[in-house]
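Need tokens for this chain, all 392 residues.
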Amino acid sequence: MIHAPTAGQPALLPALVAMTWLQALVALALFAPGAVAPSTHLDIPSLSIFSTAVFAVGVVTSSWTGGLINRIGSLRMASLCAGAVVASMSFAALGTGPALLVAGLCLGLAFGPETPASTALLGNLVTDERRPLVFSVRQTGNQIGAVCGSLALPAIAIWLAPQWSFATVGVCAIGGIIVFEWLRPRYEGLARAPPQLGMRARLALVSSDRRIAALAAASMPFSGMQLALNTYFVSLGVRELGLSHLEAGAALACAQAGGLLGRLGWGLLAMRVSSVRLVLISLGLGMAACAAVFGLWGDMLSKSGQYVLAAAFGLTASGWNGIFLAEVARLAPQDRIGETTGAVLTASYAGLLVTPVLMSAVEALAGLASAFVGLAILAFGGTAALIRGGAR
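Here are the structure tokens for all 392 residues:
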């Protein structure tokens, strides 16, 4: 049972709800510009600048926040992250390219620390046996934020004004600060963040096992595909697929719902077939196929067909993370699981940084649909790396 506390420690459930809320807030803010882009007339380069700024700052802050979390605690860090979300949405509401850049820089201050803060707190509240379930539940915050944003933010932008969409996210973040500060005294002193590794040490961990190296290589295009789905799909729907802004938001919500089911369901499937790598290979092929179909023939599908394909897209492109981390943990040296996971995630961050640049370049030359086809080719290459890395 998730709610049963470990002896001598505070209850797990309030901390789990709070940290899931934190991830949902960051996801909601991250997807907000893309969700309202047709109403604000934000172009692909502007969205790419925002995403690149978020992940560039996130990579840096994720590597030095461990000591700060140990000093101030996970819930105080959560409050600071929520404050960064408020600042980010305040700048995003201005609707200009420079303001969106500053918004991305502010949001990166939340994107980087939120996962270490959650890991440091929840990891000290659960036993080893319950940790996978608890962390899987916490990871659903990404999809919760994405589904809510995909459905609500376009509607608010159309019925009121785009600025109200960003204001809504800011209000949710202010509510988060109130909750985090209310809970903070109960969990004082529990956060113990893992040690941080330099880039050379991370590369050494990844390259020590060809199977781990293959996972790292695959995570770059897989992460890029997930980013493209979350950030650019609404624009793709309006520009290329013949959908209205609300319909495109609903299609993205279908994709995020598929991702939520995937995060919970692919782990069960991997247990049944006793091969996480085989499931990951299937997901890589699936996301490549979905992106290619949307890019090449998406406008020829019926609306119901577009919604179904969007759900399949999310099921694969947003549902791979949990079993991916489980496979990294299985292959890593048992005394260095946390460090190895962090090292592999560095490759994932590289994919998040490069993808916006690639999307902007291809979109400028050949259109947004062609950019999704290009991502499909890269995802197929990542899948091929998985196949080769697992071969004897």
